[in-house]
Amino acid sequence: MAANMGSMRILIKGGKVVNDDFTQEADVYIENGIIQQVGKELMIPGGAKVIDASGKLVLPGGIDTSVHLQQTFMNAAIQDDFYSGTKAALMGGTTMVIGLALPEQHCSLLDAYEQCRALADAKACCDYALHVGVTWWGPKVRNEMETLVREHGVNSFQMFMAYKDMMMLRDSELYQTLQTCKDIGAIARVHAENGELVAEGAREALDLGISGPEGIEISRPEELESEATHRAVTIANRARCPIYLVNVSSMSAGDMIAAAKMQGKVIHAETTVAHAVLNGMQYYHQDWAHAAAHVIAPPLRLDPNTPSYLMGLLGNDTLSVVASEHRPFSTKQRALGKEDFTKIPHGVAGVQDRMSVIWERGVVTGKMDENRFVAVTSSNAAKIYNLYPRKGRIIAGADADIVVWDPDATRTISVSTQVQGGDFNLYEGMRCHGVPLVTISRGRLVCENGVFMCAEGSGKFYPQRTFPDYLYKKMVQREKTQAYKGVDRDPYSGDVAKVANTMKKELGLGPIDGDAANKSCSRVHQGVRDLHESSFSLSGSQVDDHIPKRSSARILAPPGGRSSGIW
């Protein structure tokens, strides 16, 4: 059935085609999983299924760059596998997801990748790719990164500056990882929070008796994110590697990214739907289960202006991508931390609602137009991950990943009607304009008017190419023009001072050679008074008692002259 659907001929007629740079009224003809023609009055072979898109928008399918499916995190199994997770994505207008293969510390990156591929290939309904987490560092990790890039179609790695003792890399390790990413042409994704101070903050909060979900916000203030953001950008700049910051959650981190871009640094960043829509007052809700359902890292921010600010940064290109960071858990699983907020597994659901919520809070409010919406939900991700223009654009020759979008229709989000996993929806009761009517994935009609028709396992792994121009073009040119060079000069031919070996003796720092090693090192008093052997005493007879005492003398002309004041 999947093969027949892939060879379907489909004509989308009468709609407005929206790309990230322009909108046009055009028909779209699809055959063999590829967009064959875009334009007016097309010459179409017979037998094509016609979809009437009059008054509707025809968008590139969404690309969700951060989903977590069918794995365990913080001792809890994620509530979606690759079937239910990709089905929810397609129902919401997303036609490609990028998951994360996350190895345990000191475990093989290749093994984690292979396990993830085996699970996904059997169940995925749409195209998918994989990031691989770098949770430790050593020569083996570097070699496996090279192998993953060269032989397995991986072009992105994710590093963590938080999660101490779980996944956190030290600055020197992050520097070496970024250098490796630059050498092999991979995208370096970095989660920026000061992991050391997060751990200290959590300990202090628990010592104060704060054990509820509000502890996540108290222990991970936004200054820890902005500091780590600045540090990550600095390390990437020294490594001469483009950097992609994930889960940007605060105004101060956003400002740091804007400043770095102004300085010419090659930096891209993504935020999540939750951070761009909700604020941290949720953690202070009287219902523990409600508060715990919002626990993510970095946490939602208390400042109520933050979501609007982040949405504005998406609109003005400071932030490039919005992802769902989909990692759903049940209330029972979150209850693992009912007495200790550090044990609440971090994660929220969102892969199904990402497109509609961003349309409602971004486009309907005027923060962005329809073209920018396409950019932050699809095209920018395609450019950054080297998928463009096969993905993220409606153009002849591109993959037929298309959504027919009704900008005027509305739907009310509810956990009772969602396909995605979890027993809580962050956007419960939100009425959203913008509804996907038809979803086409690789030329297959997979969803129409809420009816899902796609076989489990019909999706494909999408190998990614290295050195995306969108990130590396500028870096390669800078390497040519800004390479460090030593000064070409005549060698020094003058005298060279001899090393003063006696200095060690004078300072009592130990033997100079083997012969002296057998001799006891006696104390030497040259120029420095040894206070342990001082002859000074505060009581009794003194060593200078034999010196005649001089009677006191009045100073008639003190240094600096006499004072004429009242003193």
Summarize the model shown.
This protein is of the alpha/beta class and 567 residues long. Helix content is 31%, strand content 19%. Residues 57-445 form the Amidohydrolase-related domain.
Keywords, separated by commas or semicolons:
567 residues, alpha/beta, 31% helix, 19% strand, globular
Describe the secondary-structure layout:
Elements: H1 2-6, E1 10-13, E2 16-18, E3 23-25, E4 27-31, E5 34-39, E6 49-52, E7 57-60, E8 62-67, E9 72-73, E10 76-77, H2 82-91, E11 94-101, H3 109-123, E12 127-134, H4 139-151, E13 156-160, H5 171-184, E14 187-191, H6 195-207, H7 214-219, H8 222-239, E15 243-246, H9 251-262, E16 267-272, H10 273-277, H11 288-292, H12 306-315, E17 321-323, H13 331-334, H14 354-363, H15 370-384, E18 402-412, E19 431-441, E20 444-448, E21 451-452, H16 469-481, H17 502-506, H18 514-517
Parallel strand pairs: 1-6, 2-7, 8-11, 11-12, 12-13, 13-14, 14-15, 15-16, 16-17
Antiparallel strand pairs: 1-4, 2-3, 4-5, 7-18, 9-10, 18-19, 19-20, 20-21
Helix pairs in contact: 4-5, 5-8, 8-9
InterPro entries: Amidohydro-rel (IPR006680), Hydantoinase/dihydroPyrase (IPR011778), Metal-dep_hydrolase_composite (IPR011059), Metal_Hydrolase (IPR032466), Metallo-dep_Hydrolases_sf (IPR050378)
Pfam family, one: Amidohydro_1
Domain Amidohydrolase-related: 57-445
